[in-house]
Amino acid sequence: MARDKTVYTCSACGGTNAKWLGKCPHCGEWNTLEESVAEPAAGSGTRNRFQVIARALPVATLSEIEAAEVERQPTGLPELDRALGGGIVEGGVTLIGGDPGIGKSTLLLQAAERLAQHIKVLYVTGEESGAQVALRARRLGLGHAPVRVLAEIQLERILAAIETEQPKFCVIDSIQTLFSDQLTSAPGSVAQVRECAAQLTRAAKASGTAIVLVGHVTKEGALAGPRVLEHIVDTVLYFEGDTHSSFRLVRAIKNRFGAINEIGVFAMTERGLKGVSNPSAIFLSTHGAPVPGTCVLVTLEGTRPLLVEIQALVDSGGVSPRRLSVGLDRDRLAMLLAVLHRHAGVACMDQDVFVNAVGGVRISEPAADLAVLLAIQSSLRGKPLPRGFLAFGEVGLAGEVRPAPRGQDRLREAAKLGFAVAVVPKANAPKAADARAFEGLTIHPVERIEQAIEVVRGL
Ligand code: TYD
Ligand code: MG
């Protein structure tokens, strides 16, 4: 019966077929047919319907449109609010993705408890039973929160519950466990995940409920993971961090209601996640004396500079040496090694190169380049960089060192934390007049990678 309502749509050409086929009969692509809900038959009224819509909605000039700033309800967790751009928005749909066990359920339960003191909150759990959620809440000391809990995985029943409960904030934990009756594919499949998210988004817009969808990132990343939902939802947050360390970052990578790339920092404790309001120095490991192969980078996440230690290990490799990076882009590492060889004459061709950003942070900005190269060079030489050393700056293919955005803010943070020596792009070096703001920090401006290597050799 359900079968009549589904069609298989080709993701390449958009052609549809009643049955699943390995090869699209329209465009000949392989493995592109995905199950989707069939559109209701357009019938004869299609054309008229569009005409009616066109007449009903007049076009307005931008300046005429009344647009009040969206109202936000702070979650009561300042670090989460920071990533969200101030709080949850009525009718807004947020996707929070992350590896299993990173702390998504914990964070949302804490947020639910705080929000429940002001507004009606519904927590839909598909992964754990109601009892498990209650137990966790008790462990976190949140047992008395007036949070309504529903253990359910069938989408239609969840939508009905939202309709009757009328919550202002609703958590769906997780989107991958839900299934809609209208599709035959299994929960967690791309078709189900997409359909359930689309229906919940519609419900959020219609009822004004702010919905948070939890999504697990699979090892492979893309497939059936939260990525297929990024375009449907208003806000996308990613929860990252090393499960072996206690620090967690919540990063906004899309926000229709605010700025992105703002991060919230948490520490996982016995009593749940605690916000870290002054996180600049948590990603530094503590060495008694300086060790070879490490270089501190000042990276800028949103509005806050963070100091992160980059570690490199260069060791003699086999016939095909390995390049491995954790928290940094591997292709970029290969490129940087080529630049280092060609422009600074430092060769790692027969060496294994491993690079790691301490504390499980993921660094995507190219301003990390200089620190990565200096860490590699330090490991290769077996000589540590001096105590209190830091670097940042993008390195181009021509060997030039390009400025990083807001370099002065980065330097100010480093000076505040007592760093002593910095190698930075020339354009980021402070003018003589501003030098007093960086007291105690000796700044070496460089324009090229070979110059940076030269400076470091002389330290
Ligand atoms: P959880 O929120 O269940 O992760 P997710 O929903 O992202 O899969 O977090 C589970 C981990 O957090 C688990 O390994 C135990 C740890 N944890 C704490 O360290 N302290 C706590 O107070 C709680 C509730 C969990
Ligand atoms: Mg969970």
How many strands? 23
| Gap from first CA to last CA | 76 Å
Q: Count of helical segments? A: 10
The CATH C-level name of the largest domain is Alpha Beta
- Distinct small-molecule ligands in the complex: thymidine-5'-diphosphate, magnesium ion
Number of domains: 3
Oligomer: single chain
Largest sheet: 9 strands, mixed
Provide the helix percentage: 25-40%
Radius of gyration: 26 Å
β content, as a range?
25-35%
Could you list the spans in which at least 5 consecutive residues all have pLDDT below 50?
42-46
The global form is: globular
The CATH homologous superfamily of the largest domain is called: P-loop containing nucleotide triphosphate hydrolases
CATH architecture of the largest domain: 3-Layer(aba) Sandwich
How would you describe what is shown here?
With 459 residues, this protein is an alpha/beta fold. The protein folds into 3 domains: 41 residues, no CATH class; 206 residues, Rossmann fold (3-Layer(aba) Sandwich), CATH 3.40.50.300; 165 residues, Ribosomal Protein S5, domain 2. Helices cover 25% and strands 26% of the residues. Helix 7 links the parallel strand 17 and strand 18. Helix 5 runs parallel beside helix 6 and helix 7 packs across helix 10. About 1% of the residues have low confidence. The structure holds thymidine-5'-diphosphate and magnesium ion. Thymidine-5'-diphosphate binds next to helix 3 and helix 4.
